[in-house]
Amino acid sequence: MNAEKDDRSGHTKGDETVFVDSSTGLRDVAVDTRQPRWVRVLRYTPLVLMVCLAVLATTVGVWYQQTHKPVTVPQSQSGADSQSSATARVSSLPGVCAKQVSQPDQGPWDASDTFRTEAAFTSVTQGLGAWVEGKDHYLFWSDAVNANISQAVGRVHVDEAQIQAWADYITGIYHVAKENGAQFLVMIAPAKWDVYRDKLPEWVDGLEGPTSRERLMAAHPELPWIDVRGALVGERTADPDTPLYSRVNSHWTPYGASVAWARTLECLSALDKTLTDLPGPDIESVLQEEAPDEFAALGATASCPQDWTVPVYAYDPGIVSVSYLQRNVSATMQVSGGLDFADLPVTTTNPSAPDHTLLVARDSMGNALSTGMMASFRQTIQVRNGFDVDQPTALEALVDLYRPDVVILEFAERYLAQTPGSGGTGADAG
């Protein structure tokens, strides 16, 4: 069905979710059906140029190797043997990175007949605007954004073909990172509904099944996951009075991001003894401020909750030099300020940090994470992951160009509904 919605009340034009930059830098999805796709893709011009240079450098390097000394050609990862090859060649990470995920039980959306379940879901969600109100005034994106509430209950989830596509995509990056001596991690930034499941509306009871994250990680536990969800859930349990996500924002708070980054540093330290010197900014206390409201502009009643948690650091994390490749300008900024995804691609240099380089492909969930990244690494190269325009960034070429010590692919959990490299979002419903 092709639904044409007003750009103030919906997120779709035809069957396509429309992504734009937000003026706040806090979300990478907004309502703007008037903007043609080529304009959105055009914002990636600096990154495309960077990738082209990387490909050129790689090509020259390959030519030199082939004409000056013998090389071993890596085994192909394409075709039907990609899953078994990935299992054989990709090592499991330490438990601090990701605990083994058991195969989830089947849910209501796995049944042979989902008519009643579908009818119950549709009766509640039909006609919804851009958001769903849960318990205690928690707001969540509706299906107008990446089938968000359907993903939350498992109604929309990855099928076998999509699971394989994700495994192939991640494995391809892994092998290039390994060949360059880099540690590679994949971070699925948890949706608010994955950490605050108890705040989903009461009507989801009886409709919940395994999510895409559970299915994908269970199918491929050998992939290099950094599963920060466990750290967030553990922190919430230990300190329920310090929010990690706001009622009125879909992103983790700056404090929530710091919990995720601390777990990432633990993982890197366990993976590689040369990375044990990566510092994380020491947190002295946490402030609770008025949260940036993503939903009020779309018609939700503004509640102005003081649930946006911001770390207060025990010491000043310092200053970094930033090269904004989009604008071809350089500047200095406070590490604690973080970097907006709208400014990517950028490179940063922190002379006070250990001499390690991080290459990260990310989205707006990486805004708050960037403080930890810039505090921990001498140099960072931060680019968009490209999932907001269905054009995943060619990370392999950038790895060959920059030769980083660490590579991180970070993306919001809602993007699992997409199939990397397909240019589409056809997830399985039920």
Automatic annotation (TrEMBL):
Residues 132-285 form the AlgX/AlgJ SGNH hydrolase-like domain. Pfam families: ALGX. Its main location: periplasm. Keywords: Alginate biosynthesis, Membrane, Periplasm, Signal, Transferase, Transmembrane, Transmembrane helix. The chain crosses the membrane at residues 44-64. The keyword Signal applies. The keyword Transmembrane helix applies. Pathway: Glycan biosynthesis; alginate biosynthesis. It is found in: Periplasm. This is AlgX/AlgJ SGNH hydrolase-like domain-containing protein. It comes from Schaalia naturae. The lineage of its organism: Bacteria, Bacillati, Actinomycetota, Actinomycetes, Actinomycetales.
